[in-house]
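U., I forgot to send this yesterday:
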Amino acid sequence: MNIATQAVNCALKRINPRWTLQASQPLSRRASLLRVRSSEEGELKRLVLLSHGTADRAANPDIARDEFRLLALLNAAGLPVAGPLALIENHEPPFLITSFVEGAPRFTAGEPSAFCQQLAAALSDLHAADIRPAFLPRLPDVLASTLEARQGVGRVRAFLRSALVGVRWNESVLLHGDFWLGNLLWQGDQLCGVIDWEDAMLGDPLADLGKSRLEMLWALGEGAAREYTAHYLALNPQLDVSALPFWDLWGAVRLAHYASFAGNPAKAAAMRQQYDRFIQAAIDALAASQK
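Result:
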């Protein structure tokens, strides 16, 4: 999303009066890399500008402020996230500037077991953080909105509605909301950062696990998805895992648009086969548990 250079420079001056924007480069639909020069030091710094789309702002007019406040809490807790530097709310759209986290996403695993262990540990650390701000949405409300929607995977929504009454909920924790390989940064073989917190909410940790299990299946296959799940559950033996198939299905509903990021028809077809098997396995597991 394009933000005028003048607005960016005004925001930079709030952080440091000697900073001036030299160049910007899109990183994603809502993130841009800023190259900033300091008149004092003469060196280029890298920062990140984050904004939010029209639909996200309509759903939550305070989404920029909420993400900024959440990043501050995450930083204070020592979690590997970008540091919030400036929030500009009197701009359309509002935006924030954060520090730049060194690293890059990885979509392959040189050593799959170690890779899965780090992913599971990172998700477990996020869920263990004592961060439950009142401004974040609650999972039951988000789930209700999902189940009321009419578009896409109607049979899965119907099954979720019928199964909801029997779901046993775990204690509410901080959820990332979109924990997948594209939002995880690595330096070599070390996971070093978690980005894109606009979907954060409070709720059952299995909701994060279920969606990310499907993402892992697509990226690294069934074996890696199983190992990732096993590592996460071993780190969290206190959890009641009976509802994991329910959260698998909710994750599948949220990822029903997978063809839009498949890249090509052959990849989309392969993802569809994995998607259908994932859904059927979850439905079978839930049906068996209800007998």
